[in-house]
Write a structure and sequence with these properties.
Blueprint (H helix, E strand, L loop, with lengths): L4 E2 L7 E2 L12 E5 L4 H12 L3 E6 L17 E5 L5 H8 L4 E4 L12 H18 L4 E5 L11 H16 L4 E5 L2 E2 L6 H6 L2 E4 L6 E2 L2 E2 H13 L7 E4 L5 E2 H12 L4 E4 L2 H10 L10 H6 L23 H9 L15 H7 L9
Helix pairs in contact: 1-6, 2-3, 3-4, 7-10
């Protein structure tokens, strides 16, 4: 049922229903990178509230689950290739808001950091400008810096400059390392029995919940007062990687064997693994282990959006508990000796 009609600056008339899954906000939003970790959560928030969501995709199997995030006809797919300008334009030409979440943690034989973070961002911005889309939200990364020793951070910084050059009133968002269900941060630590590391885990980070970042992006997209601003979205506390590993070990009750390697040795090993078919770790990811997170004091934060980010301590158990051994799922077994004894007669069988 349509309750009201109102006008938002530089936006179309909005129709609102009961506020549930079958309502329509009146917005159409394009989410580049929707099949990624953050993209999943943002697409779910947009579609579940009735925003018509356009999902550009490259791989068929990675986008299918997004269809059910919204009601019938809400989530729409457009096949896209970052090197095909026409496909990018087809993805944005009917939208009121465009979110660019595309990024790569490691380069591949098909796409370098520069291809995605700089040229990809530039082409999306050009398409947004061509079709006069009202809002463009570009998601960068913490420590984005054109002069960084890390290729990832450097290209992220150059990507911001490319976007600003084309669309000066674009909103730049730099989220910290994110955790949550399906992440590759806490779950990667929890799933390992042996973990290679560098810098003796002295790297400092301010992890943030992906739920909070997705909520912030949705609010930024709808709020015209965020135009032209830069936001840094990070958690309320700073931790070393050693402290984060300790929290994960306590939550999972699994002993993690950690091997610290010299930087050059780890980068050499990482370079050799680039020839393996599945993703491992890149030399640039090793480089970032030696770069602490730096907060831009001039950037806006969660506080400017009226959002209070969650504490890592409150969510780490919920995020990694499924990695616990079945003997650790309950607290009635007090010692390792008792657990070893129980292994003699406790068996897990599929029903």
């Amino acid at each position: 049922m349509i309750r009201s009609m109102r006008i938002v600056a530089s936006k179309p008339s909005l129709a609102s229903g009961t506020g549930g899954r079958s309502s329509r906000t009146g917005y159409t939003a394009t989410v580049f990178g929707a099949s990624g970790f953050l993209g999943n959560y943002l697409t779910s928030r947009l579609a579940n509230r009735g925003t018509i969501t356009v999902v550009p995709y490259r791989e068929e199997m990675k986008k299918r689950h997004l269809k059910v995030q919204g009601d019938l006809g809400v989530v729409n797919f457009v096949e896209m290739d970052i090197r095909n300008v026409q496909s990018i334009e087809d993805s944005v030409k009917h939208s009121d808001i465009v979110f660019n979440l595309m990024g790569r943690e490691y380069p591949t034989k098909n796409f370098s950091y520069d291809d995605i973070h700089v040229e990809g961002a530039r082409r999306v911005a050009q398409a947004v400008a061509k079709y006069n889309v009202a809002r463009f939200v570009h998601v960068s990364a913490f420590n984005a810096d054109p002069n960084s020793t890390s290729e990832f951070n450097r290209t992220k910084g150059l990507g911001e400059l490319a976007v600003r050059e084309i669309i000066p009133d674009a909103t730049i968002v730099r989220p910290s390392v994110m955790y949550g269900n399906g992440d590759k941060f806490l779950n990667k630590i929890a799933s390992a029995t042996r973990l290679f590391s560098a810098n003796n885990n002295k790297e400092t980070l301010r992890p943030v919940s992906v739920l909070d970042v997705a909520a912030a992006l949705e609010k930024i997209g709808y709020d015209d007062s965020t135009v032209g601003k830069t936001y840094e979205l990070y958690g309320p506390k700073e931790y070393t990687m050693a402290q984060i590993h300790a929290m994960v070990q306590e939550a999972t009750q699994n002993q993690l064997l950690q091997v610290n390697l010299p930087k050059q040795v780890y980068q050499f090993i990482a370079q050799l693994t680039q020839y393996i078919y599945w993703p491992t770790i890149s030399p640039d990811q090793v480089e970032r282990m030696f770069i602490n997170q730096v907060v831009d004091e001039n950037a806006a934060t969660f506080a400017d959006l009226g959002i209070k980010p969650a504490q890592l301590e409150d969510l780490v158990l919920k995020t990694v508990r499924h990695w616990r051994s079945y003997l650790h799922l309950h607290d009635n077994v007090e010692t390792d000796a008792q657990r070893k004894k129980e292994r003699e007669y406790i068996h897990v069988i599929d029903g």
